[in-house]
Specification:
Layout lengths: L1 H21 L3 H36 L2 E8 L10 E5 L4 E8 L20 E7 L7 E8 L9 E8 L8 E7 L2 H6 L3 H11 L2 E5 L2 E13 L5 E13 L11 E9 L3 E8 L4 H47 L1
Parallel strand pairs: 9-11, 9-12
Antiparallel strand pairs: 1-12, 2-5, 2-7, 3-6, 4-5, 6-11, 7-8, 9-10
Helix pairs in contact: 1-5, 2-5
Amino acid sequence: MRRQEVSASYRELSEDVEQVSENPTDEGGGEMEDHEDTSSVILPAVFLVYQTITDFREKLKHPVMSVSYKEVSLYDAPGKTGIAFYPGKARLLSCKHHYYDHIPPLINPGQPGDIECSTQRINYTDPFTNQTMKYALVVQGPRDVKKKELVFLQFHLNGTDQDFSAIDYLLFSSFQEFINSPEKAEFMKDCESSYSSWKFSGGFRTWVKMSLVKTKEEDGSETVEFKQETSVVNYIDQRTKPRSDQLFFVVFEWKDPFIQTVQDIITANPWNMIALLCGIFLALFKAADFAKLSVKWMIKIRKRHLKRRSQVMNHIS
């Protein structure tokens, strides 16, 4: 009986020795495998943190443009539209408001007619040279977009020494502010510095369809810009006139009842990024805890194995 126990003990020891000899790096391999498992968990999480922060910075640098449309029935805001003409030697013959895209036939073209528009004449120095005096005729633009209100103006130029004849104009957003301003000259200088100017030629009827675009800046301020589409038709002049005589016809109308608002929107949400990073860091902590517990478990198994082998050796001895 005693001999059988000794034989069994020798057999277990031989198996342990063979197992150790066949796998001399089991313990080290276990630790390496544990490190590999930990790395496989940690490295993707670290990359995800880097990618999240990079995406957030890119979204801050490149905000998304948001465009919205507001429908209006009257173009009163931000204070009625103004049209500033720079006729030079040309003279305003008539100015009338019409509706529903209808303009009645001309009566006595080239002769003074009714001026039914709200107008103001102003002289001021050129804002770019501060030397040349400029003369501007300021007219209130159309308002009622639902009724397709339009403003029809006729100018007459008796003679010119230039090869081409044209009248400059610019659109600005606040005719009422111009009327109430005590410094109208400075007001027009600011308008000319801020808004673009266009031209319409003599011998034609130029039809201008306007649209309004508001842009909200990052500091909360708002800028206004006019866009326009023009169509030009030839005027068939049937008058007996000197060769240098020129007539100018221009129509202003709103294109549609929509005011376009443009603003930059930053799609990067810091709260979403913080929540994602918290989740990633939690995963990192769990991975670290897993690695720590794995090492403790391996040490415990190793001690138990050594203790068992020591007991076997003592028993044999």
